[in-house]
Amino acid sequence: MPDPRFFDSPGPASLSELARAGAAELADAGAGDRMIVHAAPLDAADAQAITFFSDAKRKDAAGATRAGACFVRPEHQDFLPASCAALVTRHPQAAWAAAVGRLHAPRRHEGAAAIHPEAELEDGVLLSPNVTIGQGARLGRGTRIGPGAAIGPGVLIGRDCVIGANAVIGFALLGDRVSISAGAVLGEAGFGAAAGPRGMVDMPQLGRVVIQDNVTIGANSCVDRGAFADTTIGENTKIDNLTHVAHNVRVGRNCVLAAYTGLSGSTVVGDGVAFGGKAGVADHLNIGSGASIGAAASVFKDVPEGETWTGFPARPLKRWLRETAWLSRMAGGRGTKG
Description:
Layout: E1 7-8, E2 13-14, H1 15-21, E3 25-26, E4 35-36, E5 38-39, E6 49-53, H2 59-64, E7 69-72, E8 85-88, H3 92-103, E9 105-106, E10 120-121, E11 126-127, E12 132-133, E13 138-139, E14 144-145, E15 150-151, E16 156-157, E17 162-163, E18 168-169, E19 172-174, E20 179-180, E21 185-189, E22 193-196, E23 199-202, E24 209-211, E25 216-217, E26 222-225, E27 231-233, E28 238-239, E29 244-245, E30 250-251, E31 256-257, E32 262-263, E33 268-269, E34 274-275, E35 280-281, E36 286-287, E37 292-293, E38 298-299, E39 308-310, E40 315-316, H4 317-337
Parallel strand pairs: 5-6, 6-7, 7-8, 10-13, 11-14, 12-15, 13-16, 14-17, 15-18, 16-19, 17-20, 18-21, 19-24, 20-25, 21-26, 24-27, 25-28, 26-29, 27-30, 28-31, 29-32, 30-33, 31-34, 32-35, 33-36, 34-37, 35-38, 37-39
Antiparallel strand pairs: 1-9, 2-4, 3-8, 22-23, 39-40
């Protein structure tokens, strides 16, 4: 269930209503009165949830789902257990996205007051001009908010934090002594899109951002909220300016990310990992604790603990050095003979 501090849930919806929202057809018309409370991924869904299935490689997961209903392609509906009502469509992901819009809505700042009366500020919070703070937000003692910063509904910011000018923080929980530099954006929707009958549609992002104690995030960096699970930054990690952490990423403790680093969705980074400037990591990879990723490296495979990788595509440093030296010799030799 999405965190109610950040998402409003207007109430249950019948499968008939959700089928209409997603332009799908119920395989069993008699299930139309079944009520659905929330949306969830295939693996996390329960009997009150609606989900989607679109990848035949995950048919075992489809057969094991506990979801009450599932958007599914016609050729895949037999993968679902009897307890799961099938909503048949050629575009399961896009249909699910439409249904989520009925079940869950991101909370937005209500009313004209810049500091919402339902926000809670402990003694010693310092606010600069033109700050906005949404309903239900809570700020800890000694925290300083820079000019023009926007703190969204439900956001929790711990004690002795520093939020820079024009920073935007939403859908987020921050620990103590966190520093967010000017222009940084935390909690905006992660990137996800699916093909629908009328073109591409945005996939809902129902998760949060969790920032642990003593984290620093540099100017104009972005940390996206999770698609359903949380995006997390471990304690004492330091992130440079102009860095992007995508949805569902988990970064461990005491990591360092230099400028222009980009971590794609669902990457898992262990403790004590260092990224050189402009390093990039593909999605759903694991970077082992103590690893180092060289500047401008492009990582497409899991990196074992303690290893140093660099290059394009990234590979272990010693291998990259040997290959680079060989290439230089071959190029030089040809140049001499030519």
